[in-house]
Write a structure and sequence with these properties.
The chain is an alpha/beta fold and 268 residues long. It has one domain (6-251): 3-Layer(aba) Sandwich (UDP-N-acetylmuramoyl-L-alanine:D-glutamate ligase), CATH 3.40.1190. It is 40% helix and 21% strand. The protein has eight helices and nine strands. A nine-stranded mixed sheet has the order 3-2-1-4-5-6-7-8-9, with helices on both faces. Strand 8 and strand 9 (201-207) form a beta hairpin. The longest helix has 17 residues, at 235-251. It is globular. The model has no long low-confidence stretch (mean pLDDT 94). It binds 3-hydroxy-5-(hydroxymethyl)-2-methylisonicotinaldehyde. Its EC number is 2.7.1.35. It holds the Pfam family Phos_pyr_kin. It comes from Ornithinimicrobium cryptoxanthini. Catalyzes the phosphorylation of hydroxymethylpyrimidine phosphate (HMP-P) to HMP-PP, and of HMP to HMP-P.
Length: 268
């Protein structure tokens, strides 16, 4: 018998494997966590159409069935940690919010994936609104990127000071620990993330690796936070470890015929 920690990711499949559930599972494995997936959607980039997203949601009933199997197999104490990735539709959000309310996970790490290219703008707006109203209040830890931090805080963010203010505002409205990511979107030689938990503000900085965002970085960072929380780290320890993990994965990135490099968790 083994006592490895377990973690669940409720996420989409991205067929090339760079982002989504595949990146989450590789991160969990690299950080010695037994990973479990409930799949919310399937994204297949279209190489014939400029690698646009093709998006197919999983039926809400099938999402419920997966979560029923998972929460029946593993007691709350055995599986206290969940990561939420791409949900993609208001119906999926409704289903997942219902399960999160029923089963009180100790740690709910939300990567607030807002707009996925290839979705109808109208549909995406409904999805964003539903995510903010129904999932964000249930999160204990949230990892917005630059765009998502602007959307969740209602601010324009052009500096670390503004990113810090946005992290504070997002904490105030959600109650969650916030790790707001500047990535390549703020000026300077460093990729800076802001950690804020209501008392502690800490800047996590790493030298920028190029100036183009690498696919899967957001998923990997949030999955690494989830994995470290599953091991018993404090939120700040988990954030620091996750930043190191994703930086190493970006340095070791994998190139392909697709027009973006992806984070490689194995070379860490
Ligand atoms: O990186 C955001 C993301 C998350 N999950 C899935 C995705 C993407 C972006 O493509 O496809 C399934």
């Amino acid at each position: 018998m083994t006592s490895v920690p377990l973690a669940l990711t409720i996420a989409g499949s991205e067929a090339t494997g760079g982002a989504g559930a595949q990146a989450d599972l590789r991160t969990f494995a690299a950080l010695d966590v037994f990973g479990i997936v409930a799949l919310t959607c399937i994204v297949s980039f279209d190489p014939q159409a400029d690698w646009e997203h093709r998006f197919v949601p999983v039926e809400p009933q099938v999402i419920s069935d997966q979560l029923e199997a998972i929460t029946s197999a593993y007691a709350p104490d055995q599986l206290p940690t969940v990561k939420i990735g791409m949900l993609g539709t208001p119906a999926t959000i409704e289903t997942v919010a219902g399960v999160l309310q029923q089963r009180q996970f100790r740690q709910v790490v939300l990567d607030p994936v807002l707009i996925c290219k290839g979705q109808e703008p109208g549909a995406a707006l409904d999805t964003d609104t539903a995510l903010k109203a129904q999932i964000l209040p249930l999160a204990t830890f949230v990892t917005p990127n630059h765009f998502e931090a602007e959307s969740l805080s209602g601010m324009t963010i052009t500096s670390v000071e503004e990113l810090t203010e946005a992290a504070r505002r997002i904490h105030e409205t959600s109650g969650a620990v916030v790790l707001a990511k500047g990535g390549v979107h703020l000026p300077g030689d460093e990729a800076i993330d802001v950690f804020y938990d209501g008392t502690t503000t800490e800047l996590l900085a790493a030298p920028k690796v190029g100036d183009v965002a690498v696919a899967g970085a957001g998923c990997t960072l949030a999955a690494a936070v989830t994995a470290r929380l599953a091991h018993g780290d404090s939120p700040l320890e988990a954030a620091r470890a996750a930043k190191e993990f994703v930086t190493a994965g970006i340095r070791a990135r994998l190139a392909s015929q697709a027009p973006f490099d992806v984070v490689c968790q194995q070379a860490v």
